[in-house]
C-alpha cells in the first residue's frame, strides 16, 4: 500500500489506472472490517483524488462515508505526531462537493456553492444532461462527443492527450491531429459551460471529475463489483441484477462504430452483462423464483447464442418452469451450434440435463432435431 501511495505521484496515466485497479480490492476489505493503518488511510486519500469514490453527498454509501471519516482521523493523528497543526483532508474541503440534504453540518453557503451534476449515458446510445437539462446533441461535434465518451469509459481515470489523439484521429499526422484537438476541446468546454469543474485538464492529462460527473457505465461497474464482493440479502441482490439489466439497454454506444477503443469496451461490457444475467438466473432458481430466472436467462440468450453456459442457464430455467418441450428445443439448438460451428459435443453437464428431462417425461424421446426443423 505504501508503494502504491508513492507510485500515485508519478504522472503516468497507465500507472494510475493500474494503481486504482489494485487498490479496489483493498477498499473492499476496508469497507468490511474498517480502516486500521496509516498506509490504508493514505491509499483512501489517493483513491479519493483519483475519483474512485464517485459523487459525494447522497450518492456516497454509508460504508464509504465511514471509511473516509476513519481515514481523516488517522491522517490528522499522523500530522499531529510530527508537529503539524492541521492536514488537508480533500473530502472535507473539496470545492465541488454535492451535499445531500441529510449531510450533517451543511451550511447555506455550501448549498449555494453546489453545482448541478453532469450525467452521461453511454448504454443504449449517447446522452448528456447538465442538472435536469439535456444538452442538445447538436451542440457537440462528433469528435467532441467521442472525446466525452472516451473520458466516461475511463471512469475518472486520467487519459493522456496523446491517447486521445490516437483514438480520435488514428490515421492523421500529429500536427493535424493537434490542430483538430484544440478545436474539439474548445467545443467540449463551450457545451459544458466552460468545461470546469466537469472535465479536469492537468499536465497533458484529462479526466472527468467524478465528484460532479455521474455515468451509467460507472454505476454498472459498481453494481457488478458489489455483486461479486459484497454480502447482501437475496431481495437486494435481485434488485441489483434488475438494475444492471435496466442500465444495459441494448449495449454500449451502439451508434459508435469503427472506433477500436469503443469496440473493445463494448465487448467487455457485453460479456459482463451476459455473465451477470446467467448468475442472476441461477440465483433466482436458488430462491425458487422461476419467473425471474426465465427473465434473466432470456436476456442472456437475447445477446449471446455462442456460449454453452447461456444455453445451460436457459434450459435450467425452462425446465424449472415446466417448459420441457421448449427446453429440449433449446438443447438441440445448442448441440447443433456446437457441432456445426465448433465441431465439438455438448458438455457432460448439458447431456445430464437432457437425460434428466427425457427420464422425467419419456414422451420427449420422440423429439429430435428434425422435429424442430419442421416446426413453423
Beta-strand content estimate: 5-15%
Report the sheet with the most strands, covering strand number, pairing sense and barrel closure: 4 strands, mixed
Radius of gyration, whole Å? 25 Å
- Count of discrete alpha- or pi-helical segments spanning 4 or more residues: 17
Give start-end ranges of low-pLDDT stretches.
55-60, 93-113
The strand count comes to: 7
Spatial arrangement of strands, main beta sheet: 3-2-1-7
Sketch the topology as an H/E string, one letter per element.
HHHHHHEEEHEHHEEEHHHHHHHH
* SS-derived structural category: alpha+beta
Query: What's the average pLDDT?
Result: 82
Tell me the quaternary state. single chain
Distance between the termini: 62 Å
Shape verdict: globular
Helix content: 55-70%
Short overview:
The protein has 376 residues and is of the alpha+beta class. It contains 17 helices and 7 strands.
Amino acid at each position: 500500500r505504501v508503494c502504491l501511495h508513492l507510485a500515485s505521484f508519478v504522472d503516468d496515466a497507465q500507472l494510475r489506472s493500474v494503481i486504482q485497479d489494485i487498490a479496489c480490492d483493498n477498499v473492499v476489505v476496508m469497507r468490511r472490517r474498517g480502516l486500521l493503518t496509516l498506509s490504508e488511510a493514505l491509499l483512501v486519500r489517493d483513491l479519493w483524488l483519483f475519483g474512485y469514490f464517485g459523487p459525494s453527498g447522497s450518492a456516497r454509501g454509508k460504508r464509504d462515508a465511514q471509511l473516509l471519516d476513519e481515514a481523516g482521523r488517522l491522517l490528522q493523528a499522523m500530522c499531529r505526531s510530527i508537529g503539524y497543526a492541521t492536514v488537508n483532508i480533500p473530502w472535507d474541503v473539496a470545492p465541488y462537493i454535492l451535499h445531500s440534504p441529510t449531510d450533517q453540518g451543511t451550511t447555506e453557503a455550501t448549498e449555494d456553492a453546489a453545482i448541478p451534476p453532469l450525467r452521461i449515458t453511454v448504454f443504449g446510445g449517447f446522452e448528456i444532461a447538465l442538472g435536469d437539462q439535456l444538452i442538445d446533441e447538436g451542440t457537440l461535434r462528433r469528435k467532441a462527443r467521442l472525446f466525452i465518451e472516451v473520458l466516461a469509459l475511463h471512469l475518472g481515470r486520467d487519459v493522456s492527450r496523446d491517447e486521445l489523439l490516437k483514438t480520435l484521429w488514428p490515421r492523421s499526422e500529429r500536427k493535424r491531429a493537434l490542430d483538430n484537438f484544440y478545436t474539439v476541446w474548445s467545443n467540449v468546454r463551450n457545451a459544458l459551460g466552460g468545461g470546469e469543474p466537469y472535465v479536469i485538464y492537468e499536465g497533458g492529462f484529462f479526466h472527468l471529475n467524478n465528484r460532479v460527473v455521474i455515468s451509467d457505465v460507472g454505476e454498472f461497474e459498481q453494481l457488478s463489483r458489489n455483486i461479486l464482493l459484497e454480502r447482501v440479502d437475496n431481495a437486494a441482490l435481485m434488485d441489483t441484477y434488475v438494475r444492471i439489466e435496466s442500465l444495459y439497454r441494448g449495449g454500449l454506444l451502439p451508434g459508435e462504430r469503427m472506433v477500436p477503443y469503443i469496440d473493445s469496451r463494448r465487448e467487455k461490457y457485453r460479456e459482463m452483462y451476459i455473465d451477470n444475467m446467467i448468475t442472476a438466473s441461477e440465483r433466482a432458481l436458488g430462491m425458487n423464483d422461476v419467473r425471474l430466472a426465465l427473465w434473466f436467462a432470456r436476456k442472456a440468450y437475447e445477446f449471446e447464442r455462442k456460449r454453452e453456459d447461456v444455453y445451460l442457464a436457459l434450459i435450467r430455467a425452462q425446465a424449472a418452469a415446466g417448459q420441457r418441450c421448449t427446453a429440449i428445443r433449446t438443447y438441440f439448438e445448442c448441440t447443433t451450434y456446437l457441432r456445426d460451428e465448433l465441431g465439438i459435443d455438448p458438455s457432460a453437464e448439458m447431456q445430464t440435463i437432457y437425460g434428466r428431462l427425457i427420464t422425467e417425461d419419456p414422451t420427449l424421446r420422440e423429439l429430435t432435431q428434425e422435429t424442430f426443423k419442421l416446426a413453423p
